[in-house]
Amino acid sequence: MYSLVKIELLKMFARGRTYIALGAILCIVFAILLALYIDGENFFQFQTQNLRDSFLFEGHLLNGYLASYIILTALLVHIPFLIALVAGEMVAGESAAGTLRLILIRQASRTEVLSAKFIALMLYSVLMVLLLAASTMILGVLLFGKGDLFVVRDTICVFNSEDTTWRLLSAFAFAIPGMGVVAAIAFMFSVFSDNSITPVILTMVIIIAFMILSAINLSLFKAVKPLFFTTYMNNWRLFFDEVPNTGKLLTSLGVLVLHIFICFGISLWKFRSKDILS
To answer: Can you give the residue ranges of every domain in the chain?
Structure first.
């Protein structure tokens, strides 16, 4: 299995899409940090203008931790597309090119081949989040320095710098299974399709549809909202409550991991019966 995973990783990093996704993350992070460096103070004042009549703001609140939080909020909505771009090609791309036939005539079983592809994809998803975390936090601190993190949600929370690092790292870690679900869904569609673009489109349609339905305040959508994986992906924000809700975090993590296994199970069922050799 180790050899198969290694081969899949080598093939993955031989494709241009892989580097497009990684490069896009770095470019977007750099662009946001540059914009904050040029006009960040005005942006922060605009975001807090309704609070300035009631609170006195002192100190350097625009710092590397706040920049990391802003980027985390913005990019976790867009990274799914970059992951789906790579995941959609894992099976469908090779099926369309005919290389999947050559792989399956060897000794490795279909279960082993698909499992190796899936593991390689999960490792790539982890790499994407780690790259986002490292580039955001390192560049953010280098440009803006450290400081207290000011977060406005249902309540206003200010975390000192010693209490902020673990919250940011935990939020990035929690994003890993969320992105894993996106990768698993795109991978599942890739098994069902012979076109590498179709899985990307279907995955993004599902994500956007779930987000829209979750935002509509109607009883029907409230009832089905707990079934949407997007409901749990954004629960990394719970780490920025004064006291994180551990029960809700563990439930969200369990639901996301369950979605990953279900998608892989469906993918494996389809791949075993898929007519590839004809």
So the answer is: 2-48+58-271
